[in-house]
Amino acid sequence: MDRIALRGGKPLFGEIPVSGAKNAALPLMAAAILTDEPLTLLNAPALADVATMGALLGGLGVEVWRDRVVGQLSLRASAIESCVAPYDVVRKMRASILVLGPLLAREHKAQVSLPGGCAIGARPVDLHLKGLEALGAQLDLREGYVFAEAPGGLKGARIVSPVVSVGATENLLMAAVLAKGETVLENAAREPEIVDLAECLRAMGARIEGEGSSTIRIQGVERLRGANHRVLPDRIEMGSYMLAPAVAGGSVEILGARRDLVGALIERMEAAGVSIEDSPRGLRVSRKPGERLRAVDIETAPFPGFPTDLQAQMMALLTMAEGESRIEETIFENRFMHAPELTRMGARIEVHGGSALVKGVERLKGAPVMATDLRASIGLILAGLAAEGETIVSRVYHLDRGYERLEAKLSACGAEIRRLRDQPTTAARAAVA
Ligand code: EPZ
Fold first, then answer.
1. Whether 83 is catalytic
2. What share of the chain in percent tops pLDDT 70?
């Protein structure tokens, strides 16, 4: 498995472009199931998860191709040949569950593997399933799969979610656009990725109001058409790179960064002493090398609160802030796996359940580390940018799921970062021969 080697302690200067959002692209790709016409996504990131979703859709009979234009991904579901999302794909990528709503809407049936647990928490999908039942789907859970059908088609309903769920809101939105009558989603997620999906569905002919608020109203239509849609910038990639000069020192312009997408992060970074200014092409983030930051408390929450997907990266920053920072993780029950790894780099962190107390140290020291999920991995990369000496981050495949051209983007700003390609083992060499 590849690893990433970093030599830290160098301030960063330059610019970093933000790619299209992984977590917007995945549901948008699933939305292609809803029409037999082509859906073209501009600014689609080239990431492992996008490829996995492409392979899953390919197995259903959807044609998926990258046009010559960089970042343009086209999908066409002329006919759905299979309604099965197999375990082998779903276990690799939980977002595979997002094909359930669109398959039920278009084909009135689906067979999707249940995703199971995950490194950051139990992550049940009960809200997806209950919502689809409210829309008239009959579900049977057996052999690790959900077998779903809606013989006469789905019917609009009022669905009140007890918990704000991004994925359930997306699945139900995609199911409801072709259901008969009106659907009202109450306590819906307000994330920008939901707004992006609603905008794309509207361009395809769907009738949706209220996205971005906690009540979304959908009037079902008979059929949807193709569309061209530009994928929203990735606010988590954006936030991760905004934290890079904050951690390492320096001044970097984040191209395409938007305050409305990362408001909660900006507020906390400024409270810690980082300078963030509007720039001609995005936001400029600066911190004088050697200037000590202040401790701040954070609590993760659904949008517009502080995103759980930036918690590990913010923790990397706070390990070197003066004083004690308290981090409350309220979304996932096991999302502090990066804390013991940061401790190996000299950080002082005490974790008690969903709460972490970070006692700032002057500096971190490089070490070999590994992470169990995507955002923990980028948190360790950020820590490595500031740490004295060499840091080697293993399990790079996590990073390849969510960060396009990571080494190129950071090294363009002066970071000493490179990928160590794994040497094939003797057995693998023999197999190839
Ligand atoms: C999305 O996951 C993102 N993934 C996650 O990003 C992100 O961390 C998460 O939203 C929260 O912002 C994608 O968009 C592909 P949820 P999702 O349903 O939709 C509970 C990353 O690193 N819940 O909003 O799966 C759940 O356990 C990833 O890019 C239920 O109880 O998250 C959690 O506590 C990781 N029952 C809370 O709701 C359900 O049926 C929020 O989860 C569904 C969720």
1. no
2. 97
